[in-house]
Design a protein that fits this description.
InterPro entries: Papain-like_cys_pep_sf, Peptidase_C48_C. The protein is an alpha/beta fold. The protein is built from 13 helices and seven strands. The protein has two domains: 166 residues, no CATH class; 219 residues, Adenoviral Proteinase, Chain (3-Layer(aba) Sandwich). Strand 5 and strand 6 form a beta hairpin.
């Protein structure tokens, strides 16, 4: 058995040997417990510990302390009676005998005269004093063993000694601290807060939000849309730009990649028309901001309705493959513009690439740069002047925005079974 080999190997290290022996002790009781419940007939003997694998052999109900002698520096004297060191094994035997005798007396032993009673009282008094000495000795031993653990060890993995169980204070119902249960309303609020955040008609789950709290994390599209909605609401009627979800260009990308999938494209077109209709219902703004996701990178598309310009903003405009990404986003924008206006003419519009020098120097702040440009255009109608040195403070500010948002709200949707079925068709 590997445990026995470990005991032999570390026999010289008394403190570690003591811990290994305690682990075997706990494992023995665990094996015996499940052996009685799961294999009472003994058909699966290979699963359980055998007697020869238990370091103390078959033990009676009384719990013995370790036979391994503790380190010299851990031995404790008995106090006023003598300066000699205590023998934990002998005193534990006497303590066990005393407990057995006391238990028998409590069960109804009525024999004995006054002399026997006085002699028993004297013996009990002496053994109780020795039991107190054992408790002090063992507690001091365990404290010293725990104090000399290696720095890499985890204290929570130290086995629980049976002496701690017998000497510890009893935990009755009166000693257990009561935790007041949460009300039903408080539980619902906590579940909503754990689920995610919401702002306007947009929401985001907690796992995507928690990723933003890491300085080198990736901004997911839902997070960008949620924060953009917050920035738009903060500007109120003075906001100079609308924003849209990145799914607009992503769905246009799917239509370009899979023109043969007529059924799925029909559903995509229906969803795009719905989102475009929501934009048309909003008050007119000069700009329309749409985050665009390319391969492993976030960019931003700005549609200038007054001047008929499409600005492509990229915080890493000197990276490898930037021209291919720009051409891809341009195709997606033209598809979207044709859906917005049936009389759209591509030649009447001007595509403006990124003119600013590259401002991003790492591989993960692209989402933060997109939000910086969106916030600047909503507030002033101008691009952001932030650089890489401002990103850490800006990300902390974004986290504050998200934390201030309300949690998700559960809504019950009542479906009318008598409502007509809606068919989505080209007509």
């Amino acid at each position: 058995m590997q445990a026995q080999k470990a005991l032999i190997k570390w026999h010289g290290d008394k403190a570690l040997w003591y811990q290994l022996e305690g682990w075997l002790h706990d494992l023995w009781y665990l094996s015996e417990h499940w052996h009685r419940h799961m294999d009472a007939e003994g058909k699966r003997k290979f699963l359980w510990m055998r007697t020869n694998e238990y370091p103390w052999g078959v033990t009676p109900p009384k719990v013995r302390v370790s036979k391994a002698s503790p380190p010299d520096m851990l031995s404790v004297s008995s106090g006023e009676a003598s300066d000699a060191e205590l023998n934990p094994v002998e005193e534990e035997d006497e303590l066990g005998d005393l407990c057995d005798k006391t238990g028998g007396d409590l069960l109804g032993s009525e024999a004995g005269d006054s002399d026997n009673e006085s002699s028993m009282a004297s013996i009990s008094f002496k053994k109780e004093n020795k039991a107190m000495g054992v408790a002090v000795s063992v507690h001091t031993l365990l404290a010293a063993v725990s104090s000399i653990q290696q720095p890499g060890e985890v204290s929570g993995l130290r086995p629980t000694s049976p002496i701690i169980m017998t000497d510890s204070l009893p935990l009755g119902p009166a000693n257990v601290p009561s935790i007041p249960p949460l009300s039903h309303q408080a539980q619902r609020k906590k579940r909503r807060e754990d689920l995610g955040k919401a702002c306007g008609c947009w929401s985001c789950y907690t796992n995507k939000i928690d990723a933003v709290r890491h300085c080198d994390s990736w901004f997911e599209g839902r997070v960008i849309t949620l924060i953009a909605e917050y920035l738009f609401i903060c500007e109120g009627p003075d906001a100079k730009a609308h924003h849209a979800t990145p799914l607009l260009l992503q769905n246009a990308h799917d239509i370009l990649d899979h023109p043969e999938k007529e059924d799925s494209n029909r559903l995509i077109l229906a969803w795009l028309h719905k989102e475009i209709g929501l934009i048309h219902e909003m008050p007119e703004k000069c700009y329309w901001l749409i985050p665009a996701h390319v391969l492993g990178h976030w960019t931003l598309v700005l549609i200038d309705w007054d001047h008929q310009h499409v600005h492509f903003m990229d915080s890493m405009n000197e990276r490898l493959g930037v021209e291919e990404d720009k051409m891809r986003v341009q195709e997606e924008v033209w598809v979207l513009m044709q859906l917005i206006d049936d009389g759209f003419l591509k030649d009447a519009w001007t595509w403006v690439s990124e003119q600013r020098p590259q401002c991003q120097t790492n591989s993960y702040d692209c989402g933060a740069f997109v939000l910086a440009d969106m916030a600047s255009y909503m507030a002033t109608g101008m691009p952001s002047q932030m650089s890489q040195v401002h990103m850490r403070a800006w990300c902390h500010e974004i986290i504050g925005f998200v934390d201030s948002l309300p949690p998700l709200v559960y809504q019950k949707m009542i479906i009318n079974p008598n409502a007509p079925i809606i068919y989505i068709d080209d007509d």
